[in-house]
Amino acid sequence: MIEGKPDLMKRTSSIKDSDPKQGILPIIGSAPVVLVLGSFPSARARTVGEYYANPLNHFWPIIEELFGISRSLSYSERVRLLADQQVALWDMVDSCYQEGSMDSTIYEPALNDIRGFLTTHPTIRLVAANGRTAERFLKRSLGKAGPPAGVTVISLPSTSPANARESFHQKVQRWRVIRDSAVPS
């Protein structure tokens, strides 16, 4: 045990005594062009069944800046309007053991089949990983073969409130690629 830090083995063992946490189903319209992949939904997001439910997360404010989809709308209206912009949402992790909501506490992740999803949805041309953890899981999921032909994969700064490396304005600038790649209906 490290002085002043909990014993990781004991903590991991106690987490595994509970059932694994389950992710949220994807949000997808009829012909998505962009797929935004997070790592795993926060505890709050899983409880309410909504992507990016933490009010401190920058995802919905960024979407408002890029697409004009107001944060004040209901969640169902926001995701419908985002799907109309041909943007799909999903997470890399289908299920895992997790303590809290931080990516660093994800244990034994079962990854979603991104290659299969892209094959099923051949209109997707851009896959954007929301943060480093999503990017790492995406690389693991796609393996050495990489993405299917015609699909570009990029990593964007995390919209998590834990990511203070870039300002909100800088994140909006980097996230513009999803708006520029999407084709409004």
TrEMBL record:
Pfam hit, one: UDG
Gene3D superfamilies for the chain: Uracil-DNA glycosylase-like domain
Residue intervals of the Uracil-DNA glycosylase-like domain: 32-176
Coiled coil: none
Domain of life: Archaea
NCBIfam families: hypoxanDNAglyco
Entry protein name: Uracil-DNA glycosylase-like domain-containing protein
UniProt source species: Methanosphaerula palustris (strain ATCC BAA-1556 / DSM 19958 / E1-9c)
